[in-house]
Write a structure and sequence with these properties.
The chain is of the alpha+beta class and about 475 residues long. It is built from 13 helices and 20 strands. The chain has 2 domains: about 270 residues, FAD/NAD(P)-binding domain; about 130 residues, D-Amino Acid Oxidase, Chain A, domain 2 (2-Layer Sandwich), CATH 3.30.9.10. Strands 3, 4, 10, 11, 12, 13, 19 and 20 form an 8-stranded mixed β-sheet that branches. The protein has an 8-stranded mixed β-sheet with strand order 7-8-6-15-16-17-14-18, sandwiched between helices. The longest helix has 22 residues.
Length: about 475
């Protein structure tokens, strides 16, 4: 699409929004993902500049080799790798604006992880040999991520990840995990005592020590998403916003994806819709994810005196050891960003108490910043799988459908590796993938399968989530 500036010069423009942002949107109950809905008012969108040019909505029936549903980090990197490594130019379909969902609502923390489980939990679930392969997959993913973003101006903050013990009783757990990382995985994690953390890294008043791991990068999520968009289109992919898939039929080996402007006939389909996956998209995805809300706030820029008072000697990514963890860091423009889990339902998400919860966490960690102005506040849905690990799979070898999702909040880095892996699947090279569980089977249903398949199960899942959040809060703060 193009526009004309004040000087009369023709310039490229992104497809504008057709609908206002909906703060109460809830993918678990919504009948569709929307059409042309505007971005959430995040710091990333507010400071990324104008969205780049796209290819406009689908306006007529077309036939393509590969259609990708979802234009976030995963969808765009899949398109990039399909073009770079396999010579395939994909067609990317987006319901709303480009990178409208998880990719512009996250915390911008790229960590060396692929799901919610720790290395020790990998060993418990799959044994040492598989855990070592999983670790190599994550390390390779981080290297691929660094290579992919090296020519994208996304304000990288490298150096590692500081995992801060919010209570003294957590330190033995961190010490055990750090020893495992060093001795079994050859990954140089080290333990820092409370004095070192507070004097040499950051004066988080809750810190009782920390584990530092060498891999971790903070990025500007909006600039990264827009950089991926530019790169994908430069390689020949087309990206079509305001083109939700409102119907999906498969006949004679072809997939017919119905959008408001026309039907896209595709030989292969890759699904990359993350936490915004509609239960009505395709029967394969119904109830295989539990979308969970995460909130973030960003302060006004800190003064030099405030930075000195908080002993901020690092811009590395920080998280604490709560189950309902806080993730935070000092951004390149000296604003402080902090986030955590939020409401249970989209209807409740706009309530002021969830922003106040984050403000309280900020004040506990940095009392010197009590009362500081918050310039940005937003929330977004995280794609959590029922076994806490992602899947990048072809669920049925008889059908050319593929998906990558379920990162559980660790998708900033691993979405790029997942895009690379899904591109391999789509290009017919899935046999080259290492034999890892995340490539071998579908996203699991919850344990009570017969209940999952009932339309009324969603409220029961939410009821269980409320119970778990109360239990996690007790574990984090009281027990």
């Amino acid at each position: 699409m193009t526009g004309v500036d004040q000087a009369g010069v023709k310039q490229a423009m992104a497809t504008p929004a057709q609908r206002a942002y909906d703060p109460a949107y809830d993918p678990l109950v919504a009948q569709n993902p929307g059409q042309g809905t505007n971005y959430a008012p995040t710091y990333w969108i507010g400071t990324a500049g104008e969205p780049p040019e796209d290819d406009g909505p689908i306006t007529h029936d077309i036939e393509v080799d590969v259609a990708i549903i979802g234009s976030g980090f995963t969808g765009l990197t899949t398109a990039i790798y399909l073009a770079q490594e396999h010579g395939i130019k994909a067609t990317v379909l987006e319901a709303n604006r480009t990178a409208w969902g998880c990719s512009t609502r996250n915390g911008g923390q790229a960590q060396c992880a692929s799901g919610r489980l720790k290395r020790s939990q990998w060993i418990e679930r799959w044994g040492v040999d598989v855990a070592l392969k999983m670790h190599r997959e994550c390390v390779e993913g981080m290297e691929n991520f660094k290579e992919l973003i090296k020519d994208i101006d996304c304000d990288p903050q490298p150096g590692g990840h500081l995992y801060i013990a919010h209570r003294e009783r957590v330190m033995p757990v961190l010490e055990k995990e750090a020893a495992l990382l060093r001795d079994t995985f050859g990954y140089n994690a080290r333990i820092l005592d409370a004095k070192t953390v507070r004097n040499e890294w950051v004066n988080d008043h809750e810190a009782h020590g920390a584990m530092h791991e060498p891999e971790g990068i903070g990025i500007h999520a909006g600039k990264l998403a827009f950089g991926y968009l530019k790169k994908a289109r430069a390689l020949g992919a087309t990206v079509h916003p305001s083109s939700p898939v409102q119907g999906w039929e498969t006949r004679n080996g072809y997939h017919y994806l119905r959008t408001p402007g026309g039907v896209v006939k595709a030989k292969s389909v890759g699904v990359a819709t993350g936490g915004y996956t509609s239960n009505g998209l395709h029967k394969e995805f119904k109830n295989r994810l539990l979308p969970i809300l995460s909130n973030s706030v960003v302060t006004r820029p800190l003064t030099d005196d405030e930075i000195k008072a908080c002993h901020f000697h690092t811009h590395q990514v920080l998280t604490d050891t709560r189950v309902l963890r806080n993730y935070y860091r000092l951004l390149p423009d000296n604003r402080l960003q902090i986030g955590s889990r939020s409401a249970i339902t989209g209807r409740d998400a706009p309530q002021q108490k969830y922003e106040d919860f984050l403000r309280g966490a900020l004040h506990r960690k940095f009392p010197e910043l009590t009362g500081i102005q918050l310039d940005y506040s937003w929330w977004g849905w995280v794609d959590v799988s029922h076994d806490m690990m992602p899947r990048i799979v072809q669920p049925d070898p008889q059908q050319s459908i593929f998906y990558a999702m379920g990162y559980g909040g660790n998708g900033v880095m691993y979405s790029a590796q997942a895009g690379k892996r899904m591109a391999q699947w789509i290009a017919g090279k899935g046999h080259e993938l290492v034999e890892l569980p995340i490539f071998k089977d579908r996203l699991p249903f919850p344990n009570v399968r017969e209940m999952v398949e009932a339309e009324m199960f969603a409220p029961f899942r939410r009821f269980g989530q409320r119970f778990l959040y109360r239990w996690y809060h007790l574990k984090d703060e009281k027990i």
